What does this fold into?
Amino acid sequence: MLLALGFALARGEPFPHGTDLAWSVVAGLAGVVGITSLYRGLAVGRMGVVAPTTGVMAAVIPVVAGFVLEGVPQPAVIVGIVTALVAVVLVTRAPAHDDGRPSGLQWALLSGLMLGAFNVCIGQLSGESAFAPLVVIRLVQAISLAAFVLVARQPWRVGRDVLPMLLVVGALDMTGNAAFILATQSGQLAIAAVLSSLYPVTTVILAIAIHRERLTRSHIAGIVLTAVAIALIGLGTATL
It folds into this structure.
């Protein structure tokens, strides 16, 4: 929130008002429910169910909203969108096994629904600013989480060894959200939502490079389809 505020002031962005303020508040509520549901699902359920279900829903909902609000894009873009959704499923698949854990499907559905709604809300911003709405979004999320922690009496102290990593995560997350806002302001919501939903590809590549995780055929197919999807969406967008 502090980083977003600093960038907003440096860019001279106006504070959100009217409908922009309302969309920012709703986006903050949807985002905090979505991300906490995702973490909960990954903690208690199976990643092979939670990750792809969340990723696909978070992309499909804005795509449908984009089609309704902005019209259907070029055929190449539609093929690219479908290809991207398949790529997300392939990249986030985990080896099938039965360890007695629940699927976590209910958390994945809630997370996908809320993160999809978050993307739709972001897409409704007027385009006056990119970082100022993030200040409101982060403030709403901070208040919501603080209230939940107090009511549910959850532990809240963060270890000093973890704090630096959390600061980096916060900065990266803010940068990603700001880039998504700029993308929706300069292009179509459906395209921005699908391209941003390809983030698991980066995660998989980093896991392979840094943690030496095994590269499966599913990962390879998903990474290849990701490149194809981006090329198709870029080609279709260029012809608009």
User: Anything to note?
Assistant: The mean pLDDT is 83. The two ends are 36 Å apart (CA to CA). Residues 19-44 form the longest helix (26 residues). DSSP finds ten helices and no strands in the chain.
